[in-house]
Amino acid sequence: MFVGDSVQRGMFDSMVCLVQSVIPEGKKSLKRVPPRKIFRAEEYNASIEYYWAPFLVESISDHATNHTVLKRLVRLDSISNHSKQWEGVDILVFESYVWWMHKPTINATYGNLKNVQEYNVTKAYRIAMETWANWIETSINTHDQKVFFMTMSPTHLWNWEWKTGDGGNCFGESQPIQGPYWGTGSNLDIMGIVKDVLGRLRVNVRVLNITQLSEYRKDGHASIYGERKGKLLTKEQRSDPKNFADCIHWCLPGVPDMWNEILYAVLLQDYRKF
């Protein structure tokens, strides 16, 4: 099960595309049961699933198809509504980043739901990660379950970061960035929090560190060929890439396939140890 935001949904879509091609027609199915998407390989009695939880902890944005984007309110100490859907899953792949980075601060509660406070994003992220980590420690059966955490997916929103910019973004880019590069969209403080929280866990959670290798791929985003609110861009929107190009999500086939190749390699390595 892939758990996270729409970037993580792209990783789920990628894995389904990679797997479904070798499964005969009539022996596979895909259905949407919000907040989940479920792909089943019938003859293997196996499923690949996606679960929408953009902050991992609970929030007012938890409805999979009708969630608020501009207004965000997170319950930093509450996770049970989500976590009951994760119980007993053989392989869990978590990710949460881009929804935190809308502004430097975020409204959140801790304890009393009526006591809404404005938190620095990095402080709120740490508290949420600790809530998630507490669930991991008390609920994961290490003999039967494997847990992964994927690091942040880079964005390429401003082309001045890799060239003499003209106020543009990833639109029209056709080659990866050459040479050392780390974009301003990837927050090192958040990376440090992930490292610290996972490092203190007694349960083995393996990190899928996809950030640096994806930083170079300014050419890999959906750009004007993506969706907004479930619909393809109109001709007028496509003609305005400065405002409508999607430089957060990725094309498929594309970069998320590479993430899944890494995940598959780790799982295959585990299998060969038996």
Report on this model:
With 274 residues, the protein is an alpha/beta fold. The protein has eight helices and 15 strands. The chain has helices spanning 6-20, 80-83, 121-139, 188-199, 211-215, 235-238, 241-244, 255-273, and strands at 2-4, 28-33, 36-41, 46-52, 58-59, 73-75, 91-94, 105-109, 117-120, 146-150, 205-208, 221-223, 227-228, 231-232, 246-250. A seven-stranded mixed β-sheet has the order 2-3-4-1-7-10-11. A four-stranded mixed β-sheet has the order 5-6-8-9. Strands 12-15 form a two-stranded antiparallel sheet. Helix 3 (121-139) runs parallel beside helix 4. It is globular and about 55 Å long.
**Low-pLDDT segments, ≥5 res:** none
Shape category = globular
N-to-C span: 23 Å
Structural class: alpha/beta
Main sheet: strands, sense, barrel: 7 strands, mixed
Mean pLDDT: 95
So how many helices?
Answer: 8
State the order of secondary-structure elements, H for helix, E for strand: EHEEEEEHEEEHEHEHEEEHHEH
**Count of β-strands:** 15
- Based on CA atoms alone, the radius of gyration comes out at 19 Å
Taken as a percent bin, the fraction of beta residues is: 15-25%
Helix content: 25-40%
Strand order of the largest sheet: 2-3-4-1-7-10-11
Condensed summary:
This protein has 274 residues and is of the alpha/beta class. It is 30% helix and 22% strand. α1 (6-20) packs across α8 (255-273) and α3 (121-139) packs parallel to α4 (188-199).
